[in-house]
Protein 1
Amino acid sequence: MERIVPRTLPGFMELLPSDQILFNKIKNTISSVYEKYGFTPLDTPLIELSSVLLAKAGGETEKQIYRFNKGDNDLSLRFDLTVPLAKYVAKNYNELVFPFKAYQIGKVYRGERTQKGRYREFYQCDIDIIGEDNLSLINDAVIPSVIYEIFKELNFGKFQIHINNRKILNGVLEHLELNDSEILRIIDKFDKISKEKLYEMLNEIKANIADFIIPFIEIDGSNDKILEDLSNLNIDNETYKNGIFELKTVIDYLRDLGIDEEYFKIDLKIARGLDYYTGTVYETKLVGHEDIGSVCSGGRYDNLAEYYIDKKLPGVGMSIGLTRLFSKLKEANLINNIHNSIISALIIPMDNNVKYSYDICRLLRENNVIADVCNMEKGFKQKMNFANRLGIKTVIIIGENEINNNFVSIKNMETGVQEKINKENLIEYFKNN
Amino acid sequence: MERIVPRTLPGFMELLPSDQILFNKIKNTISSVYEKYGFTPLDTPLIELSSVLLAKAGGETEKQIYRFNKGDNDLSLRFDLTVPLAKYVAKNYNELVFPFKAYQIGKVYRGERTQKGRYREFYQCDIDIIGEDNLSLINDAVIPSVIYEIFKELNFGKFQIHINNRKILNGVLEHLELNDSEILRIIDKFDKISKEKLYEMLNEIKANIADFIIPFIEIDGSNDKILEDLSNLNIDNETYKNGIFELKTVIDYLRDLGIDEEYFKIDLKIARGLDYYTGTVYETKLVGHEDIGSVCSGGRYDNLAEYYIDKKLPGVGMSIGLTRLFSKLKEANLINNIHNSIISALIIPMDNNVKYSYDICRLLRENNVIADVCNMEKGFKQKMNFANRLGIKTVIIIGENEINNNFVSIKNMETGVQEKINKENLIEYFKNN
């Protein structure tokens, strides 16, 4: 028989069990915190009509789309979760209650050139709060407060949510009599290119503006000091003043929500180049691993679904690019899993005592211990080898002696310690070990 | 501005919040039971090279595939989770530990003609145990024992796992000197077509065989009685006898595993027309709702990955077609959700007391109550209306009086009862309500 090589496409992450367990643990933490904060789950199709999905897209995005025909339909795979959310909200506008708080965790597709750390299929984990006509600024603090709890729980180390407001940057451009979104894209690259190059690129757009813009975005210090410095600058257009007011309000709300001040920081370098954002913008950095880039970004937008519906739907949201984050965390050795199985306790029957072994197993499962019976028709040594290869922590050995005297032999595979435990004390053992 | 109608493709399920919450509850029950039983999570790509995915496919399946080119690659969307599992196991053969117990819950794609209850994008929830060279028959009982626990927990009402063994049917065909898989496909239709039609179809294949086959597959009674009746028939080829031995062994193991006898039943009508299955086969019916058809099916196979690898990998598995199941359960009014939100407790601040409200909210969240603050800049009536439209059960009202005297006013929206609770007793209240 001629066999096909079982390949996986480049740019598609497919994990071995130990990594998949780790990946799911992170994914489950994200979804459970989203839910704890009251965000409703959404699950939109991966395939949409191209006319619907690409209502707004253009340029680079459109080139990367997976697009094809099936029957008479021109279809595309979603390339983010924001467009499907906009479609969903517009389509179900009359059924939804606003402000609408929703989260979605799912795969999206971009046919990028494959290179290290770039994926063609990847998870995004989005939360959004969408208002009708208007949406209180407190939501611009609620969104990062959820992300704060997630990264606290994930415990990868110290992190900081960097916050800015697009109106401040727009106010500066207004002040300089500039109207060029190219400048925002240059500011976004601040940490990636040299200072000389930055001066050059900015001054190319208009002579001498670099001397103003660069010291401006480098303003640093405590959150209060930055806000004070911003107010003291001699810029007095409405856009700029609004931006400072919004930023100050959001910072105050973050304090009201109980977020530890060392976890959020005003950062005037954050521009988020997209036209989409209109107010607060966020990026999140792992302290000491800034080279990973932002692990969770987002911002405030004025109008979620204007391509589909004649209603003003302002919102604010953030997104974790989980697939890329996972690969970067692995690379930086910030996460690791030595277990090839989710099983905590493996029961090894010495003889053919199926019933007794599964009785013990059921007892453990009923008490939330992930347990299983090693039911291979093989010798004891091979069963222990199986447990070892899976990286099981606790092995429960059951022979004739154990059954007759109503106890089990428990071996901690990490310490090598083996002890006899009465069946009645088994659950107690797992509470303590 | 010209707007695009925000449509979703026919055959693609996209749920409103109340249904999505219900759907996810079922999906989470399935995954958590799979994990409790020690099955490792897998997450394979939705897109594969067509040459890899279609190594085995043909006929009807191939016509339904979503297939397209991207760059130089001929790609397809997966149409089930079994082929990706086979590819995964073959590809990672040296890294995996056998028997390999894995589960996968994910979307698959088939471009079927759209009709009621047929989906083009749908979830499958698969569990499989895969051995190397051989796999103990006890696993043919382990798999339905997991499904048993899932449907017990889901609590849709009484259900029965129907079990048969393909060797028994093959033995009967051997006995009748027939070698025609068409007969298995006819048997699969037993409940869907009239008795006359069945006689006609069977006798068309070979004269008078219907008189033997139909009474045979109608053998009924307790599991023990059916096994006895089967043994008493005058058929004595090895295939048939092996089939009875395997079926009896699996039934005995199901009893050893503590499965209540009224939840599983030998059913000689189960043929599972695919060539793929070689031993035990399963279907699951909701008692009183047999018209829904099987809600979870599967069986034993000899060779998972022969198209990819020169290793014998026998296995056994079952799959829940969740999207179709969900739509059928809704249709039959077996499930319902009156809440448009996952929030249990909504805090309504009367004035601008952000900090106190979020303190209460954090306290509840820390104690696993899904809580949120209604932070709309609107009046009390509109906030209560918001709570009503979401179907929130408990509303916590916070005004100046409450803050100054350290209590909250709690209103049960179902009973209309409102009471004052000291902040210290708040968690206690949620434990009892």
Protein 2
Amino acid sequence: MRIAVDAMGGDHAPAVPVQGAVEALDQLEGDFEIALVGDPDAIRRELHVHRYGSDRLEIVPAREVIAMDDPPAASVRRKPDSSIVRGVQLQESGEADAFISAGSTGAILAASIFVLGTLPGVSRPAIGALLPTAADHPTLMLDAGANVDCKPHRLVQFAHLGHIYVRVLEARESPCIGLLNIGSEREKGNELTLEAFRLLEETDLNFLGNVEGRDIITGKCDVIVCDGFTGNVVLKFYESVAGYMAQLISRNAAETGANIDLQSICRVLDYTEFGGAPLLGINGVTIICHGDTPPRAIRNAVRVALKSVESGMVNHLTRELSGLAQTGA
Amino acid sequence: MRIAVDAMGGDHAPAVPVQGAVEALDQLEGDFEIALVGDPDAIRRELHVHRYGSDRLEIVPAREVIAMDDPPAASVRRKPDSSIVRGVQLQESGEADAFISAGSTGAILAASIFVLGTLPGVSRPAIGALLPTAADHPTLMLDAGANVDCKPHRLVQFAHLGHIYVRVLEARESPCIGLLNIGSEREKGNELTLEAFRLLEETDLNFLGNVEGRDIITGKCDVIVCDGFTGNVVLKFYESVAGYMAQLISRNAAETGANIDLQSICRVLDYTEFGGAPLLGINGVTIICHGDTPPRAIRNAVRVALKSVESGMVNHLTRELSGLAQTGA
């Protein structure tokens, strides 16, 4: 197995992605290699810092970089030798089984759609965000930002994507699906969710019904579906609250001299634990990490990528989505 | 001044509203009276618990109760002798200057619109949620749930309502307004926010531009505008995360024996501090409290109501909104 990692993506590239890749090779079990995609000299300098030499690590040159504020679709066309485009292409050419990047979300999304294509019946993929919860498992919320204006049937598609992903990757037989809404009653909601509720009821998914903002943290659902606007706001808000709380507690602990186990608290709220957001609905494995992600999150993203490839996630998705497309569901 | 408090509203009525009213009379400064609206016998029993007798507290009988799951608009029509309808009517008849309830949000909203009417140019009021932030002031987010499907010009109206409310009540000269969105760049957003951005730029408000989910907690804005669907999800999510964090910290402190100042941490995240959500855009002062609100929040809602009445908030809103309606803004 071979995982491509964008060495040029993120606020602290190439240092962070390179270190994350090195940690993955060091710490993760499994028969896999890593391809670091980007400027060879810059990557080598970083590898030198880690005094790392391994026959399981290869550099794949890419001379261009798509910046965070470059227009996503246009820069994917204009920069064919960028680390994002090259990295995604490695899957198409069979040289890699997955791609991980902490670069521009829009560009990763555009490159994945252009190069790999979408799965049967999927017009546009969704970003799945794994949210830490009070339960012993995260909740997969999708869409977290790829589709800011959604029609009701898109939310049903998100539900199917989330269902298959969680069933295959987390080995939960019948993942329960919630529709993010402003009240638990079926008559609550906006135009989008009222109709999506009706459509979700008609599926054979394990549909729990409406869930509210307060149900996210409890881990009541395996999968929460929402439009990409709401999902993006919730995701960014969550991360900021978690970060702020950690700051607040540690400041307080320092002031009072309290010997509080900050780590155990913060771990619960730590998005880096889950390593990144899988892009669901494309014909391949792409995982999007935060721009300011630490090496740990890159390592964990490699773990998720390995699991996705080993479990044959894309085949599962393709087969089941084809079935749904044929029955018109 | 006379503040009407719905004695029958909320999960622990009449105990909590009655205690909150008693605390308000005890602890808040100012020349005001409270009218407790509801079942006189039940209210008297509660007052007896507090051994309270005051000539500043009166009981206004209302024999019906609108339950949390009653259909809001229909029950406002069907239950004219409910504590919510009677409480709102006290403003219309000049017997009270404000109304506070922890009952059904939908019913409070419907009764306020039917009985008091809306201000010039406002077709439907917005719920303003005061969110605790890392800064030394809360952020007013609106709409928090009254308008789940919004057209762009409604967001502009929310911005004006929020601007006037914060300027008058918090004495901030030129409150800065943010548009909740999925990115800070002007070309980011869904159909709603893209157009709302353009419209907000044309106003003479202190418009900061787009803000993201992560900007809520920082207190970067005095006012954040969004559709009522997104606002409701964010509000409920925020409250649940705050509650969960408090639980997590206190459990951890108990286990490790850490002497952490839980109170100071939780206060930062404590929505009860702000006493409730003002309903903005109606011709009166209505403040909506949480169903599971503690007495403290009712007391603080009385404080906010007093401030709203003293500052002539409704007159300010009426005058400025009339001006805007005339200039077609």
